[in-house]
Write a structure and sequence with these properties.
The complex is a heterotrimer.
Chain A: H1 7-39, H2 53-80, H3 83-114, H4 123-142, H5 148-162, H6 165-175, E1 185-186, E2 189-190, H7 194-240
Helix pairs in contact in A: 1-7, 2-3, 2-5, 2-7, 3-4, 3-7, 4-5, 4-6
Chain B: H1 2-18, H2 20-39, H3 43-64, H4 66-69, H5 71-75, H6 78-84, H7 89-118, H8 123-150, H9 157-184, H10 190-220
Helix pairs in contact in B: 1-7, 2-3, 2-7, 3-7, 3-8, 3-9, 7-8, 7-10, 8-9, 8-10, 9-10
Chain C: H1 3-28, E1 52-59, E2 65-67, E3 70-76, E4 81-87, E5 99-108, E6 111-120, H2 128-137, H3 144-148
Parallel strand pairs in C: 4-6
Antiparallel strand pairs in C: 1-3, 1-5, 2-3, 3-4, 5-6
Classes of the chains: A mainly alpha, B mainly alpha, C alpha+beta.
Chain lengths: ~240, ~220, ~150
């Protein structure tokens, strides 16, 4: 994987992937929505409210995935000084925060009619809220320094400290009595019927490709900014000569 | 050992110059006395939320002095001098953490019985509260000093530090106050104590290391 | 002591502390903080009747009765039962045999006055026909325990 650490090679791979990601995003999104809204059957308990799950669950997955990418990118940046690691980490934060908000909001909309309340302070909901705070803190601290490289390093250390929250979110429903239902994937198998898995996975693919698209665009922006800055510095130093 | 020499010096400075400890104690006292005034004098309500109030205020108290904890020494060159006289970054980090606990955690623990009584808590729950504070406040100091090290030389430190430190401290708040709440309804609070000690052990291993790395980065920049 | 030896000790002690800390936490999770207590948890406890708590379990089949807006039912964890009374509107997912969390006061052992009822959903998602088919084939896993009673 280390060859990916060269920003130029990474840029080329990225450029080649973008059209495909767009195609997958549009295709899985359209198909996923058709399945989620029309074809898939209502649940035997929840009725039509189950359709919220097709947004809620993929956005929860992607929120965790985004933070995982921040943590892994930060780790590779701190250990091997891979510049692409830092780029990926920084680009994953805003989109991850959006996924977290989407997950919390859809959860609340589902919770009111189903549980009887918008919000409870059980372990799953609380740890998910902490994840949102971690995303926000990560974004703020990265931009709080004059020296951008120093800011990247500091933010990476903060991201690693916060990654302790990931297993807590994942296993909160197993470790404690929560109001939130356990994971649909367990040792017993998948507890969702096949007709409902189709839209769930289509939406998951759609969200994943959306994440990649935003990630790539954000990285392109970051590289462009670095290039412009370098160019300005170069032209100033030439003038001074 | 350098650690004790430094520590002695550090405590001397904080007691002579800044009166940090006194300031913190007064902050804790004043803010807690706002609650009966705001919530109303209903003794049942007060005694029920008292452990939560004291824990939240312990958490906030641990944050108020963080923005100067490491930066004072860094700005006037003390840290650099210590490093150049071959003292390890980890020792400096440990000194700062212990000083922070002595000037914020300890005063809070010493004042908790008094404030517990003022908030209508029962004698036995006050005992549990004190033990929970003993298990939890060192972690608050560890994570707080880590937050202080993260934001060295950063812009808007005053807002950044709480934003970074509070989310990381939420577990301590939850388990700390749950010790007392569990004890109140005759449940065994040992689980919460063990979790807090576990968190403390993990924080005591990782935080000094992370702080020393961050200190090194800020000096060698 | 040399710096290297100090560092070695630091890592050794650190490693032991990390393992000890993690194992303490994982061990204590079982009886640590919970969102609600089960009827068995509450069996031998004396809880102040003005202490607000949450209890949770399954709504025992055939115990739900309604008198105007007053609902009463039993919450069970298949070992112990608690009688729950509640005035108000029940959430959509409230069913006999389904999970429920009730917030309120334990007025005496085994009798609970709920002020708020939350329905706890399980992780099973399926269309009605599938649920009926599985029930018909006798391989229902969702709320087996409560069906047996």
């Amino acid at each position: 994987m280390h060859f990916m650490a060269n920003p130029n090679i990474f840029s080329k791979i990225m450029e080649a992937l973008i059209p495909w990601v767009i195609v997958i995003f549009v295709f899985s999104g359209t198909l996923g929505l058709i399945f989620a809204l029309f074809i898939s059957p209502p649940d035997y308990q929840q009725g039509d409210s189950v359709r919220i799950m097709y947004v809620h669950v993929p956005s929860a997955w992607m929120a965790l995935f985004s933070y995982l990418m921040i943590a892994l990118g930060s780790l590779s940046f701190l250990i091997w000084r891979h510049p692409v690691g830092s780029l990926i980490a920084k680009a994953s934060a805003p989109v991850g925060a959006i996924f977290t908000i989407l997950c919390l909001v859809t959860g609340m909309i589902w919770g009111k009619p189903m549980w009887g309340t918008y919000w409870v302070w059980d372990a799953r909901l609380t740890s998910m809220l902490i994840l949102l705070f971690l995303f926000i803190g990560y974004m703020l601290i990265g931009n709080a320094f004059e020296n951008q490289n120093h800011g990247n390093k500091v933010a990476s250390i903060f991201a690693l400290a916060g990654s302790i929250n990931l297993p807590i979110i994942k296993f909160s429903v197993d470790w404690w009595n929560t109001l939130h239902q356990p994971s649909i994937f367990s040792m017993k198998g998948i507890s969702v019927s096949n007709e409902m898995l189709t839209p769930l996975f289509l939406m998951a693919i759609c969200f994943q490709s959306y994440y990649l698209l935003i990630l790539f665009m954000n990285i392109k922006k970051q590289i462009a900014i670095i290039k412009i800055n370098n160019h300005i510095i170069l032209s100033i130093s030439k003038k001074e000569k | 050992m350098f650690l004790f020499e430094l520590l002695k010096n550090e405590i001397k400075i904080s007691s002579l110059n800044r009166g940090d400890s006194l300031f913190v104690a007064i902050f804790f006292l004043v803010t807690i006395s706002l609650f009966p005034l705001g919530v109303g004098p209903d003794t049942i309500t007060l005694s029920r939320i008292a452990p939560g109030i004291i824990w939240i205020m312990a958490l906030l108290t641990s944050i108020v002095s963080l923005d100067r904890l490491l930066s004072d020494d860094l700005d006037d060159g003390t840290t650099e001098m210590l490093v150049s006289s071959n003292i390890d970054y980890t020792i400096i980090a440990l000194t700062k953490i212990i000083t922070h606990w002595l000037t914020t955690g300890l005063p809070v623990i010493l004042m908790a019985p008094l404030l517990g009584l003022a908030l209508q808590m029962q004698g036995s729950s006050i005992g549990t509260l004190i033990i929970s504070l003993f298990c939890g406040t060192p972690t608050l100091s560890l994570i707080g000093t880590f937050g202080s090290a993260l934001t060295l030389n950063a812009k808007h430190r005053g807002i950044l530090i709480p934003l970074l430190v509070l989310p990381l401290n939420i577990p301590i708040l939850i388990f700390g106050s749950s010790c007392v709440t569990l004890d109140n309804i005759n449940f065994d609070p040992n689980g919460s104590f063990l979790v807090m000690i576990g968190i403390l052990l993990i924080a005591i291993t990782l935080c000094p290391l992370a702080i020393s790395i961050l200190l090194k980065m800020s000096i060698e920049k | 002591m040399k710096k290297k030896t100090i560092r070695l000790y630091y890592f050794l002690v650190g490693f032991v502390a990390l393992v000890l800390g993690a194992s303490l936490i994982l061990n204590a999770f079982e009886d640590g903080i919970v969102f609600f207590y089960s009827p068995t948890d509450l069996k031998f406890k004396k809880i102040d009747s003005n202490q607000k708590i949450r209890i949770g379990g399954l709504v025992k089949l055939g115990t739900l009765t309604q008198n105007n807006e007053l609902f009463s039912f039993k919450v069970t964890d298949n070992e112990e039962n608690i009688d729950v009374r509640f005035t108000g509107i029940l959430p959509d997912l409230f069913r006999e045999g389904q999970g429920v969390v009730a917030e309120g006061y334990l007025i005496k052992p085994g009798e609970f006055n709920a002020i708020e009822i939350l329905a706890k959903h399980d992780e099973n998602y399926m269309p009605r026909e599938v649920a009926d088919a599985i029930k018909a084939s006798g391989e229902w896993r969702g709320d087996t325990e409560s069906d047996k009673q």
